[in-house]
TrEMBL record:
GO terms for molecular function: NADH dehydrogenase (ubiquinone) activity. This is NADH-ubiquinone oxidoreductase chain 3. Keywords: Electron transport, Membrane, Mitochondrion, NAD, Respiratory chain, Signal, Translocase, Transmembrane, Transmembrane helix, Transport, Ubiquinone. Residues 1-31 form the signal peptide. One of its GO terms (cellular component) is mitochondrial membrane.
Amino acid sequence: MNLMMSLFINSLIALLLISVAFWLPQLNVYAEKASPYECGFDPMGSARLPFSMKFFLVAITFLLFDLEIALLLPLPWASQTNNLGLMLTMALLLILILTLGLAYEWVQKGLEWIE
């Protein structure tokens, strides 16, 4: 009984939220609300400027390497384990993978700004 009641209430809340989400965009949108805001002044130029792909590639590369380096953070606590050799081997394997990834980026010239 409790399971059926909770499923019914959850479904009802989900349907209510979906209907509100479809109803809200139907409201009137004014041009002033949709325009970009620059400290109370009208925009000087277009708000849709082209984005350099180099910045995007460097940002993605940074995120990948940063997240992989975060895997090394628990390494000092690995000294408390019984199988220290396995932990150090895994850490060295991770560092090797990071080094190979950096070498690949270097060879593919993903870190250079000048073409």
